[in-house]
Amino acid sequence: MKTILDVCDLCTSFGPVRAVDRVSFSLRSGEVLGLVGESGSGKSVTGFSVIRLLDQPGHISGGRILFHGRDLASETEEGMRQLRGNRIAMIFQDPMMTLNPVLHIDTQMVEAVRAHQKVGVAEARRQARDALGAVGIPSPEERLAAYPHQFSGGMRQRVAIAIALLHNPDVIIADEPTTALDVTIQAQILSEVQRLVRERNTSLIWITHDLSVVAGLADRVAVMYSGRIVEHGPTDPVLDHALHPYTHGLIGSVPSRNRRGQRLAQIPGTTMSIDRRPPGCPFHTRCARAQDVCRTEPPPVSRGAEHTALCFFPMEEAARLEVVQ
Questions:
Q1: What phi and psi values does residue 290 have, to the nearest 5 degrees?
Q2: What's the CA gap between 135 and 230, in Å, rounded?
Q3: Buried b / exposed e across 111-143, counting CB within 10 Å, b at 16+?
Q4: Is 309:243 a contact under the CB 8 Å cutoff?
Q5: Contact 218/32 with Cβ under 8 angstroms?
Q6: How many Cα atoms occupy the beta-carbon half-sphere of 112 within 13 Å?
Q7: Contact indicator for 201, 30 with CB cutoff of 8 Å
Q8: What is the pLDDT of residues 297-309, one digit of tens each?
Q9: Which is more confidently placed, 258 or 32?
Q10: 83-87, 224-228, 256-260 — which is least confidently predicted?
C-alpha cells in the first residue's frame, strides 16, 4: 500500500518544554493507526502537530511531516488552510469545537463545502445532506435546519464526523471522539467510522487511552509515554505480546483482565510532568524491571516480530511464559 503520511523525528515544544520528542510513524492508504497513552503522554499534541493546529507558544521545533512527500512542518499557513478539512481533517473530542452553536447545521456544512469547492449553494447543501445520511443521521434533510443544541451528544459527534468526511480526505485525525459518550453510542460510532474508512479507503489516526477500542479498530498501534513512542507495531503482536513494560502495564490494568473480587492491577506511581522528564528511560521511575542503565542512558530500540520498543529489558521472556502457561 502507498504511504500517505510519514512523520520523521517530530519534536513539538511549548517554550523550553518538549512535549513531543522525536516521534516517528508512517500511515499507509486505508490504514488505521491507534495512538495510545495516558493523559499527558503527548498523543493529542502529536495529532495537532500533524495538522498544524497548535496554540501558542506551541510550535514544531524539529523533524518532518511528509504528506504525499510535502513537508507540512515547513508549509505556509496559506498552504495549510488549503489542506485542512480538504485533504487532512480532524475530529475533536468535543464536537462543539467543530460546530458553531448559533448557526444552523446547513449553514456550517455548506460553508465547509464551498471553502474548498467551486459549487453553488444547492449542490453544497446536497453534499451536506448526503454526508449526514452517510453517518447514520435519520431524516438528514430536516436535520440540516437544526441548531447543534437540538442534537444529542452522539448525534453532534456524527455531524462532526460528517463534516470531516465532506471532501473525502486522505487522512483523518480523530482525537478521542467517543470518550464522552456512553458505551452503546460509542460502539455505534466506531462501527460507522470503520465502515466509512473501509468504503472510502481513508487513512485514520485514532487517538485514545482505551485499548479495547484500539483492539477492534486499528491495524497498527503506537504507544506513547512522556512524549515518545515507546512501542509500535501491528495491533495483534503489540497487544498479545507487548515488549515494553509500560504497554504490558496498560494491558494488565484493563478491568476485564482482572479476576472478580481482586484489586485492579495498576501501574505504580504517576506520569511525570514533561518539564521534569528524568534522564535515561522516562518510564524507569515506575518500572519494576528498571536497572541502573535505565536511569542514565537513553533506551535502545528492541525489535520483536514486526514491532519495536524503546527498552533495555523488553518483556519478551515474560510474554513467552504467558503463552506457555
A1: -65, 140
A2: 34
A3: ebbeebeeeeeeebbebbbebbebbbbeebeeb
A4: yes
A5: yes
A6: 31
A7: yes
A8: 999 987 765 789 9
A9: 32
A10: 256-260
